[in-house]
Amino acid sequence: MKNTVTTFQEAKGREKLVMLTAYDYSTARIMDECGVNALLVGDSLGNVMLGHPNTLSVTLDDMLRACASVARAANSALVVCDMPFMSCHVSKQQTLRNAGRLLAEGGAHAVKIEGRYCHEVRALTRTGIPVMGHLGLTPQSVHTLGGYKVQGKTLAAAQKLLDDARALQDSGAFSLLLECVPAALAARVTRALAVPTIGIGAGLQCDGQVLVWQDMCGISQSPAKFVKKFGEVGLALRSAFTAYAEDTRNGLFPAGEHCYATTDDTLFDALV
Ligand code: KIV
């Protein structure tokens, strides 16, 4: 079944939505084949793929390249691409142009925007570009937030988050990602909205979940408290790299079956 923003919205209250980050063709193909509903080309690419300390230096070109490779792998998954820092904050024209490129050149089906950018969400949805909102911990605002901290812990902060969520939905957001908020607040927001919520560090009551794949597969070095490790891919890679190095150094690789031969290799004796 093809996942679309419509099937995403229809899933609310019926089935949990499964989303993972993806940044390249090979990994995205496996996720798509495993039935993951949506692939998020997250700007966490800056951290996990490029080794930056935060997402602020991720460019539109970084996102375009990653998104196009993920989109080529997505036969059934919905591809949602993050709008990187400053790509949707300067002017409406620039926002439309950048988001348009993520769909036209990057092959995304929708974009995700961090924060309460209702005018932008309205302009984009009117243009035919579906938008996923993102509230709670919004990593592009790390310096304003004073670090990567749980958000919405006071009544005032929780009320603001609920108001922002309603405003984004009213502006046309087809879904809302909630990052690092108390589970009870995410549950309240989820009940208040008609569109599905996708949680990361936001408890069980969200309509779906997303994780950074390197975190849930045991590759990231110190994942956050909300991450469950579903696999030991890091260990599997280490063991494969070590075995390859050993076999190469010991002259055991390549073996005969890994080599090309001709029917008569003595042919090459004639080379001068
Ligand atoms: O960039 C990202 O990976 C995100 C997370 C919330 C999943 O936005």
Using the CA coordinates, give the radius of gyration: 22 Å
**Level of helix content?**
25-40%
Structural category is: alpha/beta
Number of helices: 11
Bound molecules: 3-methyl-2-oxobutanoic acid
State the fourth-level CATH superfamily.
Phosphoenolpyruvate-binding domains
This entry's quaternary arrangement is single chain
Distance between the termini: 61 Å
According to DSSP, the number of beta strands is: 8
Question: Which CATH top level class fits?
Answer: Alpha Beta
Reported for the largest beta sheet, the result is: 8 strands, parallel, barrel
SSE pattern: HEHEHHEHEHEHHEHEEHH
CATH architecture tag: Alpha-Beta Barrel
* Average of pLDDT: 97
- Shape verdict: elongated
Strand content: 5-15%
In short:
The protein has 272 residues and is α/β, with parallel strands linked by helices. Helices cover 40% and strands 14% of the residues.
What does this structure look like?
The protein has helices at residues 5-10, 25-33, 45-48, 60-73, 92-104, 118-127, 142-145, 155-171, 183-192, 213-216, 233-249; strands spanning 17-21, 38-41, 78-82, 110-114, 131-136, 175-179, 197-200, 208-211. The protein is α/β, with parallel strands linked by helices and 272 residues long. The protein has one domain (5-211): Alpha-Beta Barrel (TIM Barrel). The protein has an eight-stranded parallel barrel with strand order 1-2-3-4-5-6-7-8, surrounded by six helices. Helix 5 links the parallel strand 3 (78-82) and strand 4 (110-114). Helix 8 packs parallel to helix 9 (183-192). The longest helix has 17 residues, at 155-171. The protein is elongated, with a radius of gyration of 22 Å. The mean pLDDT is 97. Bound molecules: 3-methyl-2-oxobutanoic acid. The site of 3-methyl-2-oxobutanoic acid has 11 residues, from strand 6.
